[in-house]
Design goal:
With 508 residues, the protein is mostly helical. It has 20 helices and no strands. Helices cover 73% and strands 0% of the residues.
């Protein structure tokens, strides 16, 4: 039964959508400049910034994609979640302080701005902008696909549009996202993050409770899965049905790769006082850990319910969360969780379309020595182009949301992580090394992903990661290797020149 036939679910979701539109309209009145549009006027407090950082990482990828990935590959999917125990601290201690301080002494709205300030290289900043655009299309696509699946489940569009249901649901979601993002920019996004973050922490705990109740407890769920012909004991093995290289690749990409995620790094530019950063690892770490409960709870409950005959096998694993919420939770909770997931997707989508539009309107023109006259106007136009491209790419990608998100996450991490994490802490890294590292991470990841997915040229040799090595992990390792190798070759005679204010920030 679709959610549209259940009044509590429908009313809760519609109330949330009206709230989103109201926030967008309110934020539009507060968005008067490019500074407001891209970094919310740099006047956001600690709690809002911390929840915005958490929400940027935990959205449709976690709430829809996570349980779907667990349904397909078992507990091995948790190798993506394990780094949550330390990534918040790693992110804050390695890059956050320097990013915020740089934003205090320079006009910095984006990660490519940081790359240019550190290396004084238009090539490096231009390559960083290209990486941001590619990764944004992938990650925003994952959010739009998750939004489409939710709209399908809530409003029953499959009965209306048939095989075109997902495409039409994604189109509806796209229209909402474009209106929301073009009106309010980052101001709208961060205040939705505040509502969404608080809502999802509570909802994740409640859903985890109902998952345990529906499955009869962890022991009963495990027993049902083990005895099932559909899943079997391997579903609960630490590595499940995946090779060890895949598991280790997940761990590497979602730990070290965090250091290059512009949708998270971007939030640090907005913080009103950099001294508050000392509390962010605690807030972000605790809230992320609690939100992972929805990944674990639904990820285990749905296979056990399918094994016990209480739920039909899923044709699409990404439907695990919607199906569980519709059938095994109280309607008011299902409505709240659906609204919370919608909030998560909306806020994250808003972050992505803004950093993507900034890369197009500000960063690429600067790399060619040009400046767009009206950045606010053209930034809103670029939002539409980025969002449409992302929706088309996600629809054609044809795989799980979590795997699409992994591709985008890996693109960001491989291209931007080494140049930022190492470059902001080690003055010997040169512009040539940063440019080579960014180009390596971006190109290697795209080539390997294409080879893994392509079905057009059967004569092409299959790459080595067919045995389980993640393309994103290979590209991340290659990017770090190139950074250190080129730095060693180009800085043996003398250290690169760094602007005095940037050097001061690096020394703090």
């Amino acid at each position: 039964m679709p959610g549209a036939l259940r009044p509590e679910i429908l009313l809760t979701v519609l109330a949330y959508l009206l709230l989103v539109l109201a926030v967008g309209a309110w934020a539009a009145r507060r968005t008067r400049s490019a500074r407001d549009f891209f970094i919310a006027g740099q006047g956001i407090g600690l709690l809002v910034t911390a929840l915005a950082t958490m929400s940027a990482a935990f959205s449709g990828f976690v709430f829809i994609g996570g349980p779907g990935l667990t349904y397909r590959m078992g507990l091995a999917s948790l190798f993506i979640c394990i780094p949550v125990s330390f990534t918040a601290g790693l992110l804050c201690w390695v890059v956050a302080k320097r990013l915020r301080l740089l934003a205090g002494v320079r006009e910095i709205y984006t990660v490519p701005d940081v790359v240019y300030c550190r290396y004084r290289s238009r090539m490096a900043s231009g390559l960083a902008a290209a990486a941001v655009i590619v990764g944004t299309v992938g990650y925003l696509g994952a959010q739009l696909k998750a939004l489409g699946i939710l709209i399908e489940s809530i409003f029953g569009t499959r009965e209306i549009f048939g095989e075109w249901s997902l495409a039409m649901a994604m189109l509806i979601g796209l229209i909402i996202v474009v209106f929301y993002a073009t009106a309010g920019g980052m101001v709208a996004g961060v205040y939705t993050d505040l509502f969404q973050g608080a809502l999802m922490v509570g909802a994740a705990i409640a859903v985890f409770y109902y998952a345990l109740e529906a499955g009869g407890g962890l022991q009963q769920m495990a027993q049902s899965i083990i005895e099932s012909d559909h899943f079997g004991p391997g579903h609960l093995d630490p590595l499940g049905a995946i090779p060890i290289f895949t598991a280790m690749g997940f761990f590497l990409v979602f730990s070290v790769g965090n250091l290059g995620q512009p949708h998270m790094l971007h939030k640090f530019f907005m913080l009103d006082d950099p001294r508050k950063l000392k509390w962010m690892p605690l807030i972000v770490g605790v809230t992320q850990t609690l939100c992972v409960l929805i990944w674990l709870g639904i990820g285990l409950a749905v296979p056990s319910l399918v094994a016990g005959g209480k739920l039909a096998p899923l044709a699409n694993p990404d439907e695990a969360s919607p199906q569980f919420l519709l059938h095994f939770t109280p309607e008011i909770l299902a409505g709240i969780v659906f609204a919370g997931i919608l909030a998560a997707i909306m806020s994250t989508a808003d972050s992505f379309v803004n950093i993507g539009s900034a890369a197009i309107v500000r960063d690429l023109p600067k790399a060619f020595g040009r400046k767009v006259a009206d950045e606010l106007f053209w930034g809103r136009i670029a939002v539409v182009g980025i969002a449409v491209s992302a929706a088309v790419f996600a629809y054609l990608y044809g795989d799980l949301i979590a795997l699409l998100g992994t591709f985008a996450f890996g693109t960001f991490g491989a291209a931007l992580g080494p140049a930022l994490a190492i470059g902001l802490n080690w003055r010997r890294v040169t512009a040539a090394a940063a440019s080579a590292s960014i180009a390596t991470g971006l190109i290697v990841n795209l080539v390997l992903e294409f080879l893994a997915k392509q079905t057009y040229f059967e004569a092409l040799p299959k790459p080595p990661f067919q045995t389980g090595v993640l393309p994103t992990a290979v590209s991340l390792a290659a990017s770090f290797t190139v950074l250190f190798a080129v730095t060693w070759c180009t800085s043996r005679n003398q250290e690169p020149e760094i602007d005095e204010d940037v050097q001061l920030v690096m020394d703090l």
